[in-house]
Structure formats: structure tokens, C-alpha cells
């Protein structure tokens, strides 16, 4: 809601709290079942007012968790700058109602210290992220990917020290293999900084975290799990059922390639869409609901290129349970 040009959050934003929030593993943190990702649509190339409208809609509907990374944009860093601008323009009065995450692990700046998992990179990157986002601390800082060369103890001790320095309240890891996840869990627990959450890709087209045992392990150990790209970047929506729309991510071509949409995949998406129609749901709604009904899931981390998409996706929170024959 805008009041004389100033954003005032909807006073009903927590009315649906019982349905919306889930505990993140065994922690004290509740996260919304739907969280908002800033990978696309929040960069320096995107219209600020559209990004702003999406975040207003999200927060007005109880989505308290925004997920970023140092190199989201484009250009790199610019999604965090958008977040910083949003803090100044709108969200500073609501800082304590927000759970903001960022990450480091992929290429960010030139030279040997702007990538992977060294202490030097993680520390420097978080300092940069805080400046860009206009924040004193982030709620959650992730190692964005497993580094097979840097000693795990170096990466993990950097995460511990980041929490102890007050620059992040919790830590998470993303896309680490199971054995490394187990090691991280033990290390962090022994150093009094329990692993809050694992971020991995689980959706109707990609069940690797289930197949690899990551989801079961997180669930047994009281670690939350948040699913990124839950709509497979838009494939699990009605977006591509009748061709490739001009304004779609696939048409932009960088992260979602046209080759991915084979005739076989399209047939499968259409069959899923029929099941969704039988449930009186959109394909997107059903795809998100399916994830949320899997054991051990805390939240689905969606992207949206406009408010209408997010509005449709929110409906999954109230979806019917699945019967075995559904999917
Ligand atoms: N840890 C990691 O390595 C990692 C990797 C990837 C992502 N992530 C996180 O996960 C977040 C989400 O990733 P994602 O953007 O790939 O998620 P996604 O939810 O799978 O895909 C989002 C895209 O799907 C389309 N869409 C969404 N809702 C729709 C609807 N109701 N109807 C039609 N189309 C719809 C939009 O594409 P159009 O642009 O075509 O409209 C939107 O940008 C990221 O922002 C990031 O925070 C993390």
C-alpha cells in the first residue's frame, strides 16, 4: 500500500500465518512456505518499480524471506543494490520483520579471491553485500556451492566466524554433496553455529536431493530445506504449453535454453497440466504444492517477473494434499 508516496505494509499481512509459516528444521526460525528469490527480475537491467511492486506484494502477503546472492543481477551485485534501495525507500521500518539471505561461492570479481570457498572470498564478499544492501547484518549467509579444493574446515570456519562477528545470524549451504553436507553439519554443530538450512533444487522435473538422500538427512538432523527453482525456471507453469512467449526467460536464452523444451518434455508438462486442472489448480500451483507436501521441506523459493505470477503462486499454500495416484 502507498500512503502519500510512502510504502506502508498491509496491516493484514500476517492474517494467514497459521497456513503460511513453517519451522526451519529444529531452529527457532519460522519461514514462509513461499519465499522470494532475487536471481532474476531485480537486477540493474530491470525496471525498479516492477521489482519494487513484487516485493511490496510479497511482504503485504506475509512473505518475509528474500533470497539474494552476491552475483545476482545483471550486472553482478545489482540485485543487492536493488535490495539496498528498497531498504532505504520502503523496508527500513520493517527490518526486524524480514529474513534476508545472501550467498557467495560463484564468480564475483576478477582475480584469485573472487570465487569458490576461501575465507578471503567469503569474508570480503559479505562485507560488499552488506554495503550494497544497506544492511548491518544478513539473517542468513550461504556458501553458494561446494569447493572441491579449498579445505572444508577453512570454508566452515569462515562461516562460524561470520556468525560470531555478528554479520550474519545463521548460516546455510547450497548445492553441497551429501558427504560434505554431513561434514559441515558436524563441524558447525561442534563450533556452536548449527547449520540452519540447505538450499537445493527439488521440483517435479528434478528430484536429485531426494534421490541422493539429502532431504532425508536434513530432515533427520533438524536442518531446514528450501527448494530453489521450484518451477524449473518457468517450465512447470503454463508459460510454455503453447509456444515460447517473447517476454519469457527461455526467450532471453541465457539460463533456460530452448533445447531443454523437447517434444517429450512438452508432452509431460501437458499431462501434468491436465492433472492440475483435475485438481482445480494451475500447473504452477500444483508444482509448488507438490514440493511443499514432500517430507522435510521448509519453503519453496520462487522467482516472479510480475505481481500476477506471485499472486497465483501463493495459492499453493492452501492446496489439497496429494493422493498416490495424482502424480
Ligand atoms: N542456490 C542456487 O544455486 C540457486 C540457483 C538458482 C536459483 N536460486 C534461488 O531460487 C530463486 C528462484 O529461482 P527461479 O527464478 O529459477 O525460480 P522458479 O520459480 O522456478 O522460476 C521463476 C520463473 O518462472 C516464471 N513464473 C513464475 N511463476 C509463474 C506463473 N505463475 N505463471 C507463469 N510463469 C511463472 C517466471 O519466468 P518469466 O521470466 O518467463 O516470466 C519466473 O521468473 C532465485 O531467485 C534464487 O534466489 C538459487
TrEMBL record:
The NADP-dependent oxidoreductase domain is annotated at 33-326
Molecular function GO terms recorded: oxidoreductase activity
Keywords from UniProt, A to Z, are:
NADP, Oxidoreductase
Name the GO terms of the biological process aspect: methylglyoxal catabolic process
UniProt entry tagged with the keyword Transcription regulation: no
Give one Pfam hit by family name. Aldo_ket_red
Superkingdom is Bacteria
PANTHER family in alphabetical order? HYPERKINETIC, ISOFORM M, L-GLYCERALDEHYDE 3-PHOSPHATE REDUCTASE
The family assignment reads:
Belongs to the shaker potassium channel beta subunit family.
What name does UniProt use for this protein? Glyceraldehyde 3-phosphate reductase
Identify the species of origin.
Segatella bryantii (Prevotella bryantii)
Amino acid at each position: 500500500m502507498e500512503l502519500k508516496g510512502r510504502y506502508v505494509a498491509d496491516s493484514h499481512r500476517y492474517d494467514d500465518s497459521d497456513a503460511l509459516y513453517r519451522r526451519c528444521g529444529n531452529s527457532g526460525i519460522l519461514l514462509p512456505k513461499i519465499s522470494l528469490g532475487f536471481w532474476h527480475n531485480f537486477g540493474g537491467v530491470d525496471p525498479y518499480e516492477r521489482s519494487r511492486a513484487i516485493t511490496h506484494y510479497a511482504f503485504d502477503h506475509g512473505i518475509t524471506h528474500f533470497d539474494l546472492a552476491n552475483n545476482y543481477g545483471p550486472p553482478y551485485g545489482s540485485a543487492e543494490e536493488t535490495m539496498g534501495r528498497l531498504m532505504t525507500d520502503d523496508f527500513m521500518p520493517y527490518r526486524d520483520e524480514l529474513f534476508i539471505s545472501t550467498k557467495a561461492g560463484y564468480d564475483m570479481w576478477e582475480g584469485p579471491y573472487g570465487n569458490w570457498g576461501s575465507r578471503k572470498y567469503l569474508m570480503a564478499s559479505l562485507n560488499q553485500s552488506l554495503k550494497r544492501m544497506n544492511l548491518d547484518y544478513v539473517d542468513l549467509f550461504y556458501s553458494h556451492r561446494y569447493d572441491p579444493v579449498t579445505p572444508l574446515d577453512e570454508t566452515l570456519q569462515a562461516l562460524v566466524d561470520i556468525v560470531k562477528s555478528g554479520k550474519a545470524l545463521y548460516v546455510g549451504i547450497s548445492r553441497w554433496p551429501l558427504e560434505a553436507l554431513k561434514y559441515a553439519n558436524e563441524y558447525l554443530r561442534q563450533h556452536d553455529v548449527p547449520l540452519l538450512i540447505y538450499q537445493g533444487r527439488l521440483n517435479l522435473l528434478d528430484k536429485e536431493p531426494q534421490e541422493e538422500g539429502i532431504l532425508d538427512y536434513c530432515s533427520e538432523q533438524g536442518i531446514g530445506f528450501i527448494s530453489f527453482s521450484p518451477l524449473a525456471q518457468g517450465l512447470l507453469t503454463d508459460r510454455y504449453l503453447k509456444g515460447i512467449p517473447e517476454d519469457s526467460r527461455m526467450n532471453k536464452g541465457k539460463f533456460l535454453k530452448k533445447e531443454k523444451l523437447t517434444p517429450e518434455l512438452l508432452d509431460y508438462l501437458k499431462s501434468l497440466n491436465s492433472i492440475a486442472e483435475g485438481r482445480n489448480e494451475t500447473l504452477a500451483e500444483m508444482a509448488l504444492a507438490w514440493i511443499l507436501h514432500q517430507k522435510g521441506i521448509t519453503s519453496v523459493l520462487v522467482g516472479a517477473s510480475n505481481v500476477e505470477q506471485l499472486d497465483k503462486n501463493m495459492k499453493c499454500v492452501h492446496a489439497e494434499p496429494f493422493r498416490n495416484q495424482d502424480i
